[in-house]
Amino acid sequence: MTRDELVAVLEKKRMTEIIELIEDAEQGELEELELVESLGLLMDQELNKEVLSLLESLGVTIIYLSGDEEDEDEEDEDEEDDEDDDN
CA angle, 30 as apex, 8 and 28 as ends, to 5°? Predict the structure, then answer.
């Protein structure tokens, strides 16, 4: 699927955030994207594969996290928020 075909599908499905990610990557404003591997970026697996492939071709590094790492990051953020609330 070409970039234009992919964007047309995304527009049809009103996935404007994903189109913005692609545009950011094209402009060099997106270098890395962290994803929970088991979830991916989109629920549609084929579309997910196409979008990630396009992003990688635009130089974006996809960093896959396990669900455990994501949970740890959220816990760390919650702890930081709690510390901020104490002050």
Answer: 90
